[in-house]
Design a protein that fits this description.
The protein is built from seven helices and seven strands. It has helices at residues 2-24, 27-36, 39-56, 68-73, 82-93, 166-178, 183-200, and strands at residues 58-61, 64-67, 97-105, 109-114, 123-126, 139-147, 150-160. α1 packs across α3 (39-56) and α6 packs antiparallel against α7 (183-200). The N and C termini lie close together (12 Å).
């Protein structure tokens, strides 16, 4: 789906990603990150932004703004298998939420508890690669999808090696109170709070001597 979007709508997709990045970081912060973070970070950033774009973003196509998930599932979208359609439908209905990691089986699964919903049951999520670096006590923002009889992450992960700043939790709680009855708007606002907090935790990292790639942001320059 990502390759198809870039093949058919490269300019619109790049514009949408640039706008999304701009909503998370100003120019000075982006330049600072470009000077400090390596290509692996920017690849991870691109994964998170593409996940957001496909789940709930919009593209300007022939002068009309269209929700990406609806466009991909519609008659003008790519040829999808039944499994791909099901996954995309689940993605479009999901929201980016903040979770406590309470248990990890490396290479197998992790147990997550919703930070904002103390009454919610823990969720056991099947995850191979991501659980290799996770430990109990971490927090992460992710989209949890129900794939028939089990749960999976969509692929996007906003990892906090230490618990998120209390101000982030306060923002999420305030958004939840203000957005009661407006599920879609609340999900979008909460997701942006999580993504912004995730990326801003890197802004104040001190540069290292190996940071010789100042201003290099593969997100906006790598071909797909």
């Amino acid at each position: 789906m990502v390759d198809w979007l870039f093949e058919r709508h490269r300019k619109a997709t790049r514009v949408a990603l640039t706008e999304l990045l701009g909503s998370l970081l100003d120019d000075e912060q982006r330049d600072k990150l470009g000077a400090q973070m390596d290509e692996e970070f920017w690849v991870g950033m691109q994964v998170n932004l593409m996940d957001w774009l496909i789940a709930e973003g919009e593209l300007q196509i022939k002068g009309v703004r269209q929700r990406v998930s609806e466009y991909l599932l519609g008659p003008g979208g790519p040829l999808l298998t039944a499994t791909q359609r099901y996954w995309l439908q689940q993605l479009a209905q999901s929201s980016l939420r903040l979770y406590d990691v309470t248990d990890v089986m490396p290479g197998v699964q992790m147990t997550l508890r919703d930070v904002l919903d103390a009454d919610a049951a823990p969720i056991v999520v099947q995850e191979r690669s991501g659980t290799q670096i996770l430990t109990s006590g971490m927090q992460l923002g992710c989209r949890v999808l129900r794939i028939r009889e089990h749960f999976e992450c969509s692929g996007s992960v906003c990892l906090f090696s230490t618990p998120a700043d209390p101000s982030v939790i306060a923002q999420l709680r305030a958004a939840a109170q203000e957005g009661q009855g407006q599920r879609e708007e609340l999900a979008t606002r909460s997701g942006m709070i999580i993504m912004s907090a995730w990326v801003r935790q890197y802004v104040d990292l001190p540069p290292t001597p190996s940071d010789a790639h100042a201003g290099d942001t593969p997100l906006l320059s790598t071909d797909h």
